Amino acid sequence: MAIAKAERLMNLALCLLGTRRPLSKRELRGSIEAYMEAGNDESFNRMFERDKDDLRELGLVIETVENLEGETGYLARRDSNRLPPVSLDAEEAAALGLAAKVWQQARLAGAASGALQKLRAGGMPEAGDPYEGQHSAIEPRIPVHEAAFEPLMLACRDRRPVAFDYRKSTAARPETRQVEPWALECWRGHWYLAGYDRDRGAERVFRLSRITGKVKSRAARYTAEVPDVVTVRETVASWAGESADRSALIRLRAGAGYPLRAKATAVREGGDGWDELEIPYGHGLDAWLVEFGPDVVVVGPADLRADVVDRLRAVAAG
Question: What is the mean predicted confidence (pLDDT) over 12-27?
Answer without folding.
Answer: 89
